[in-house]
Design a protein that fits this description.
The protein has 366 residues and is an alpha+beta fold. The protein has helices at 4-17, 35-47, 61-68, 71-75, 79-86, 108-117, 119-130, 144-149, 154-164, 172-191, 275-282, 309-312; strands at residues 25-31, 51-57, 90-95, 135-140, 195-200, 203-208, 215-217, 227-230, 238-242, 247-249, 252-254, 258-262, 265-270, 291-297, 318-324, 339-345, 350-353, 356-360, 363-364. The strands form four sheets. It has an eight-stranded antiparallel beta sheet with strand order 13-12-9-6-5-17-18-19, covered by helices on one side. Strand 12 and strand 13 (265-270) form a beta hairpin. The longest helix has 20 residues, at 172-191.
Amino acid sequence: MPDPRHQKLAQVIVNYSLALKPEDKVAIHGSSIAAPLIKEIYREAVRTGAYVYTQINIDGLAEIFLREASDEQLTYVSERQRFDYDFPTASIHIHSDENTKHLSGIDPKRIAIRQAANAPLMERTMTRTAAKELRWCVTLFPTQSYAQDAGMSLSDYEDFVFGSMLLNDPDPVESWRKVKANQQHIVDYLSKHDEIHIVSPDTDVTYRTGGRIWTNAHGDFNFPDGEVFTGPIEDSVNGTVRFTYPAVYHGQEVEDVRLTFQNGRVVESSAGRNERFLNEMLDMDAGSRYLGEVAFGLNYGVQRFTKNILFDEKIGGTMHMALGASYPETGGKNVSALHWDIVCDLREGKVYADGELCYENGKFLI
């Protein structure tokens, strides 16, 4: 029996997150297991008068490629790939891994090489987004693998996912508009300040954001959403952060990450597990040891860590930092093939803006 929440999710993404209109050129990306949701999004998108096409993947192909490809194949980016990043005016990416650990046995160097080769594609997406030539949205189709990572049954995980998307509300779009209004007060406050100082157990770090643009994330680019973020001044980050939760990237888990910044750059790094992978990613390119994003998670409906960054970076009472590429629309200038969000719990922390206490025990005081 079809899950009516798929239809509801499709309606919200098509009409609210992306606000599709006639003649939009829309790409829908997902794997075959997500077919029930892909069909509903496709149906809603066609009804808007947009020109819609799909890119359906099969799980396991990335693992085959990264294991078997020659050095030349690892660094090759086809004209077709470049076209796919230039053609659409709107793009929907549905995360739907059947096995979230499918790349755990791959040499981190090969992942870094491929990621670096694809850097121009990521940069193109960011440039087109900042120029308002492209609208995109990332969402998730619940699978057994995601549920197992979260320590939940599939039915419980589905309830968690769709609940965090506010799909149980009578009017989800109106609910997300309220999220936008509430978060805008925080954006307005942070936009008037420069130095941000964060203190929590094993963490004492400062960065500056004067002249940068704080962004209100309310369900337009990520679904679910609930954060405010910007790109810090690249050489302004100083201090040490101990990230509370495991850092997950390409299915690799790195536990107890500790980073020390000096004039913006990571100068010391350690991890309780999988430190080699951490350091391979830090050494990916010239920009991978700098922060491209700083943010505060504000979705208090998400209260548990699930090993999926789409949800974990939104946990109410946390902050996250992204190593690598900046989003140009924030004014950030860091360029990298890497963009790796790592989360730190602030429910025992304090945040000062230009010396003024503005956040304590997981909530803004303003």
